[in-house]
Hints:
By secondary structure, the chain is mainly α.
Amino acid sequence: xxxxxxxxxxxxxxxxxxxxxxxxxxxxxxxxxxxxxxxxxxxxxxxxxxxxxxxxxxxxxxxxxxxxxxxxxxxxxxxxxxxxxxxxxxxxxxxxxxxxxxxxxxxxxxxxxxxxxxxxxxxxxxxxxxxxxxxxxxxxxxxxxxxxxxxxxxxxxxxxxxxxxxxxxxxxxxxxxxxxxxxxxxxxxxxxxxxxxxxxxxxxxxxxxxxxxxxxxxxxx
Length: 221
């Protein structure tokens, strides 16, 4: 069941659940995120974050592309198409930024770190291809919502390394809220959407934890 909350001005139901998850477990709540988003962050740590994001989300097809194939028709296909087109721009920006920041900093356990991120990428692709109704949409909504939150880190890095950064064209929160609320037609679908979102946020948090550990390893080396 869905509705509109007069107190919060947001859709309840499917979107309310996903918004709660984003607020509680999004990238910006991880302790490693804020230091990286500061202009005074070490250049090597910023470069490491950019390369990690590029490895996780910079290759085509990504989560949104796979999810669109699962939802080529339907009331939310327009949202998916807009998100896919916008994320293609984000992917191109990541590639340019990875070149601008220079090579990934030498870090102990490099091969293991890369294997971990590739496993995370595979997990995201698996979510996007799920046959369980609602999982791919919930995962996609979480990616879009969390990307909008972490985008300032990318913008700060781009400015720092002299790269022009176009505005983000991903669907706005109100557009995503409408889609998520309309899609949660049953409690089972809402639970599936929440599961998909939780898994994406868990992978993102795992990435920030990995970057935190890598920075610590570099400082000890």
